[in-house]
Amino acid sequence: MSRLAVYLREIRPTLTLAAPIIVGQVSQMLMGVTDSAMIGHAGTVPLAASAFGHNIFSIFYVFGIGLMIPVSIFVSRARGAQQPAEAAEYLRHGIMAAVVCGALETMAMVFLGTQLARFDQPPEVLAMVKPFYLLFAASITPVLIYLVLRQFAEAMGHPWAPMFIMLGGVGLNALLNWVFIYGNLGLPALGLTGAGISTLTSRTLGALMIFMWLQRDPAVRAAWPRRWLGGYSIARIKEMVGVGAPASGMLLFEATAFAFSGIMIGWLGAVPLAAHQIAITCASLAFMVPLGLSIAAGMRVSHAVGAGERARLRPIAFGAIGLGLGVMAVFAISFGLGGRMIAAWFVHDPAVIVLAGQLLVVAAIFQLADGVQVIASAVLRGITDVRIPALIALVAYWVIALPLGYALGIAGPFQAIGVWTGIAGGLAFAAVFLTVRFARLTR
After folding, report:
1. What is the pTM of this model?
2. Domain ranges, residue 29
């Protein structure tokens, strides 16, 4: 069999595993899209305030995601080695990590909420953002618990139920937005604060639903913990932190680059910030497809490592990267040709629509690099290579993306478009060097 045929053979099982994960990721992102669209119809300032709140929340959320990543890696590896008791222990330790991390992050966000004026955002944005921001802070723990349980289900080869639970959460969030943002069913119109209430409620119920489903699913019974409290292993915690901390740092470098890019755009005014929120929402929605592919590819690489099938590592990884490139090319064309039309779905302000359309053209350019870097990152984590990739991410986002964005957009004449161009440069650097790293380690 030719090398190309070997690579193509691995695409189908990756896509089969990835399909429900992608739908679940898109559904999760649709919750943010729904929020942006429904808040946008309440006004430009509420939309800008939601962008500011999301920017800060994303830093804490992504840090938590990185610490939870070892659950999918080690559960997949235990499943490949046919050790269900080990999978159960990684789930149990992951839930403990989610609760501790979520509580600490919520406290940190509450403290930071007293310092929001230091970010030098428009006064009208600061005047309304705090209740929304605090409600998002309270949602960190349930969303991390959901993430751990979802990763466990997917790593055990059962990705469909989490997908349906997330779809249900999107519908519930939209319904609650309709009630709380606009003041329907006899309740007062709470605007941006209502969106925060909807998100917190939806995330909490989602975590509860997936736990109840897994507890009753006979397919994962052998790997379901017999107890939840006590008896934690220091060695296992160190093992998980050894992977999770660098992975968290890697994701954090990227997330903070995007978040601080949004803060820099906030220095330019409410209109650029609202346009940024629309464009980043659309780009993030597209990103869910390669993200889903990356999750599937990372788990399949971990499974192959556990099963001792090293020859499958490169076919799995590069098949997924090729598939991701094809999908992101479609999104790039859509954003490049239809940017203004897409922006008009979110808001009626002509100035916001024009600028968001221009930002989506830049997003079209970096879609390909974004798809490659996220898949390359995941397959490197699958072979537990996390420290050098974290260094690559640091250079990509904090040495290239942010300084270049500031030079072009804040110190230079290009404003929001310049900031986004800096992001594109960082993503391109990460895509090239992470892919080369994996190729060298799997020769």
Report:
1. 0.80
2. 3-441
Contacts of 363 (CB under 8 A, 6+ apart): 279, 282, 283, 286, 335, 420
What's the longest Cα–Cα distance across the chain?
67
Residue holding tokens 């999908």? 327
Over the chain (443 residues), the average pLDDT of each successive run of 10 is 74 87 77 76 80 83 86 90 92 95 96 88 86 93 94 88 87 91 89 90 94 91 90 90 87 82 86 86 84 89 88 91 90 86 84 89 86 93 90 94 93 90 93 95 89
Who contacts 421 (Cβ-Cβ below 8 Å, separation ≥6)?
Answer: 362, 404, 405, 408, 409, 414
Mention every residue, 6+ apart, whose C-beta is less than 8 A from residue 175: none
Query: Domain count of the chain?
Result: 1
CA dist 103 and 139 (Å) reads 10
